[in-house]
TrEMBL record:
Native source organism of the sequence: Phytophthora sojae (strain P6497) (Soybean stem and root rot agent)
The protein, known as: WRKY19-like zinc finger domain-containing protein
Domain WRKY19-like zinc finger: 49-70
Any Pfam family hit: Zf_WRKY19
């Protein structure tokens, strides 16, 4: 990174992510960070679900949206509910 005293890896324009080394969303008036295709998540940035004909964004690295199983399960052994906060479902 070109910022004085910073040894982080350069991302964009000689800067690391922390110091502004990222692209912003290409939508007019939006200053959010772009994820993919120069769009933020709100405007369609991110990867799409791998299920054919599904246009929803993936929720985790398994390539699936929440509707198709792309969510974390509760940390409590035997509980198959979706994790909400800190890895636990709303019941736990």
């Amino acid at each position: 990174c070109s910022q004085e005293g910073c040894s982080s890896r350069v991302q964009v324009n000689g800067l690391c992510y922390r110091h502004g080394g990222y692209y912003t969303c290409r939508e007019d008036g939006c200053d959010r960070k772009a994820i993919t295709r120069q769009l933020c998540r709100l405007h369609g940035g991110g990867s799409l679900c791998h299920v054919p004909h599904c246009t929803k964004l993936i929720r985790q690295r398994n390539g699936l949206c929440a509707a198709h199983g792309g969510y974390y399960e509760c940390k409590v052994e035997g509980c198959k509910k979706r994790a909400a906060a800190r890895g636990f479902c709303r019941s736990h």
